[in-house]
Specification:
- There is one protein chain.
- This protein has 208 residues and is mostly helical.
- The protein has a domain at 14-138.
- The chain has helices at residues 3-9, 15-28, 33-52, 64-88, 91-103, 106-114, 121-138, and strands at 168-173, 185-189, 195-198.
- Strands 1-2-3 form a 3-stranded antiparallel beta sheet, with no helix packed on it.
- Strand 2 (185-189) and strand 3 (195-198) form a beta hairpin.
- The longest helix has 25 residues, at 64-88.
- The two termini are 24 Å apart.
- 30% of the residues are buried.
Length: 208
């Protein structure tokens, strides 16, 4: 990821960049077209959720914001994620998503994902696709639940997001713009999409 991309990702609306990048990758890597086609179908749903989500939420200070996030995800976002997946996703994912949507306790599913509890792959997909744009819209938001057993981590040696306590999903090196100077290393949160600087020589998984 380029420095400009990282800056845009931290701005008010990173969705145009994501849409452009998905189209670019779909053209460059035909073998990944199926999954990129699904991602392209999810982008407008997630962008709409991000832009329409009422943040700051009424009642945040009394814990109301967290429950409203779950309600919004279940009532407004999750059904559209299912529709996009059914129309553009691979057959196995479509079948799994329909099964979860018809049988699961959906508010509890979102709650368990936010708390980092064990979920099946199909449950994880639905919860993450529906809720991550809302977490991003609330960023920074200290009321989001932290990963179990984790304190808030503030400095660049920590492996969890300093904004919401989520796990990193990818690591990248920014371009410095100078040939003899290497750019800093960043991690990207799997929950709220925040980027934070991280030590180049440290494992993002275990911290060693």
């Amino acid at each position: 990821m380029q420095v400009l991309e990282a800056a845009i990702a931290e701005s008010a609306n990173a969705w145009p960049l994501r849409r452009e990048r998905a189209a670019e990758l779909a053209e460059r890597y035909p073998h990944a077209a199926e999954m990129l086609r699904l991602y392209q179908a999810l982008i407008p749903v997630q962008e709409r959720a991000y832009l329409e989500f009422p943040s700051p939420l009424v009642g945040e200070g009394q814990g109301g914001g967290y429950s409203k996030l779950i309600d919004f995800a279940v009532e407004r976002v999750l059904p559209e994620i299912v529709d996009a997946t059914v129309s553009s996703g691979p057959a196995r994912l479509r079948d799994g998503v329909i099964s979860v949507f018809c049988s699961a306790d959906l508010p509890d599913l979102i709650r368990r994902w936010l708390h980092g509890q064990s979920l099946t792959p199909f449950e994880t997909y639905l919860a993450r696709a529906s809720t991550s744009p809302l977490c991003e819209a609330m960023s920074p938001h200290p009321a989001l639940p932290r990963e179990p057993g984790r304190e808030m981590e503030e400095d660049s040696s920590k492996t969890h997001c300093p904004n919401c306590g989520g796990l990193p999903q990818v690591s990248y090196f920014a371009v410095s713009g100078e040939p003899l100077v290497s750019g800093p290393r960043y991690l990207v949160c799997s929950r709220c999409a925040r980027n934070w600087i991280f030590s180049r020589m440290t494992c993002a998984g275990c911290g060693e």
